[in-house]
Design a protein that fits this description.
single chain; globular; 13 strands; YmcC-like fold; 13-stranded antiparallel β-sheet
């Protein structure tokens, strides 16, 4: 699926996107927060709902994304997962999320089976790093602090940067997670290598969150 890039390509991506994302970050550093286990911190209950604003570049288009947990199921290995539905104005997708021990994992299901899409390993403390399944696909907890989105100011937001290189391009993802709310924002940058350039980005910001009943 995703092949690792040559080291020099990855170094260029890290350097370039690091500059871009640093310039866009509105996180104000706070003392390190030791978050509890994900079961108490990362919402994964049926009935939870998040609504995000979406902005696409270079198209300069706006959209809305609604994420709803509407049920649960059993994965092939016997783990129980919540079913998350992602609904844009003209598209939809489904993710299966497990929350066990110190780790939250999200999977997409296609013809090849369940593919790891997201992973969060608690506690989320600055400097913590983990691998997400394939060579070169890594996540790093950058900082904790106040992060502002239309839904409000979140004083204990955690920024996580993820890089996942592919054969001819690469993606960089910055995600902000807030205690008891979950993901409040993320920014995705897409880079191409023929020639090397940023070819697009997506920005999501939380508009409102409705916890499970």
């Amino acid at each position: 699926m995703r092949d690792p890039l040559h080291t020099i390509f990855l170094a260029v991506v890290l350097f370039t996107v690091g500059i871009v994302s640093a310039g866009c970050d509105n996180t104000v550093d706070k003392p390190i927060v030791q978050f509890p286990a994900p079961a108490a911190d990362f919402p994964n209950a049926v009935g939870s709902r998040w609504t995000y604003s979406v902005y696409y570049l270079p198209k300069k288009q706006y959209d809305t994304l609604t994420v709803t947990i509407y049920g649960d199921t059993m994965l092939a290995d016997g783990r129980r997962a919540s079913i998350w539905r992602y609904a844009w104005s003209s598209d939809a997708d489904t993710e299966y999320v497990t929350n066990r021990g110190d780790t939250v994992k999200g999977y997409f299901n296609d013809s090849a089976g369940y593919e790891l899409a997201d992973e969060y390993v608690y506690p989320l403390v600055p400097g913590k790093r983990w691998a997400d399944g394939i060579p070169g696909d890594t996540s790093l907890v950058v900082n904790t602090g106040t992060y502002s989105v239309p839904a409000g100011n979140f004083s204990q937001a955690v920024r996580i940067d993820r890089q996942f290189p592919k054969q001819r391009d690469a993606l960089w993802l910055s995600t902000w997670v807030a205690p008891s709310v979950g993901i409040i924002a993320w920014k995705k940058y897409h880079f191409d290598f023929g020639p090397f350039e940023q070819v697009g980005s997506e920005e999501y910001q939380l508009l409102r969150y409705t916890p499970a009943p």
